[in-house]
Structure formats: C-alpha cells, structure tokens
Amino acid sequence: MTTLTAVNATTFQDVVLSSSLPVIVDFWATWCGPCKVLGAELERLAPTYRTTLKFCAYDLDAGSEIPNRFGIRSVPTLLAFRAGTVVDQVIGAVARKDLVAFLDRLAGTKGH
C-alpha cells in the first residue's frame, strides 16, 4: 500500500494547495531510475511523519501544467508546500540523512 497520494492537475488544488498540513510533492516519472529510489525512500519515511506531513506524488507523464507552473526542470524534484506556498525544495536523489533533514525542517521536528 502506497503512502504517497497521487495528484494531478485536477486534484492538485484540493489535495496540495488547500491542505492544512505541510505537503511534500514528489515530481517523478516512470522512466526515471533515481525517481524510483527516492520514491521508495519516501514510502519508508512517510509513516514516521503521518501526523505532521502529507506526502503526494505527481507523475510527469500525467501532464505538464503543474510541473510547468512550479518550474520543474528535472526529476526527481521534491517541493515542500506550506499553506499553498512552496517553502523548500530538493532536486535529485539525495542521501537518506539529507532527506530526513529536509522532512524534519518542514515538519518542525528533528531526529527521525
């Protein structure tokens, strides 16, 4: 069972921008090897943050409107949203410790 909610241009406003929790959006593609590695790591980490963060995934093959709107130029890219605004980002596959630090910053926690 996936812990990342799939989003697209139709659902992005309600699921991501209107969320009461901070949201991580994983922009990825099925043909991207590093995307699969990062996505698997997010799947493992997401349960730890279930009360403080929402995790979503946007498949670039689902359409370019949202990636273009937020300037996505390469995958994988993680965007962190708080109250509908991008507040942080990670581009490329990163080490687990760096990913945890990124998630902790957004969640307002540390030491996961």
Overview of this structure, please?
This protein has helices at residues 12-17, 33-45, 65-69, 96-107, and strands at 5-6, 23-28, 54-59, 77-82, 85-91. With 112 residues, it is an alpha/beta fold. The chain has one domain (5-107): Glutaredoxin (3-Layer(aba) Sandwich). Strands 1-3-2-4-5 form a five-stranded mixed beta sheet. Helix 2 (33-45) links the parallel strand 2 (23-28) and strand 3 (54-59). The longest helix has 13 residues, at 33-45.
List keywords for this structure.
112 residues; Glutaredoxin; 5-stranded mixed beta sheet; 32% helix; globular
Write a brief caption for the model.
This protein is α/β, with parallel strands linked by helices. The protein has helices at residues 12-17, 33-45, 65-69, 96-107, and strands at 5-6, 23-28, 54-59, 77-82, 85-91. It has a 5-stranded mixed sheet with strand order 1-3-2-4-5.
Arithmetic mean pLDDT: 94
Going across the biggest sheet, name each strand in turn. Answer: 1-3-2-4-5
Proportion of residues in β-strands: 15-25%
Number of strands: 5
Uncertain stretches of 5 or more adjacent residues: none
Shape: globular
Terminal Cα span:
22 Å
CATH topology category name? Glutaredoxin
| CATH H-tier superfamily | Glutaredoxin
Radius of gyration: 13 Å
Q: Do you know the CATH architecture?
A: 3-Layer(aba) Sandwich
Helix and strand content put the structural class at: alpha/beta
Which CATH top level class fits? Alpha Beta
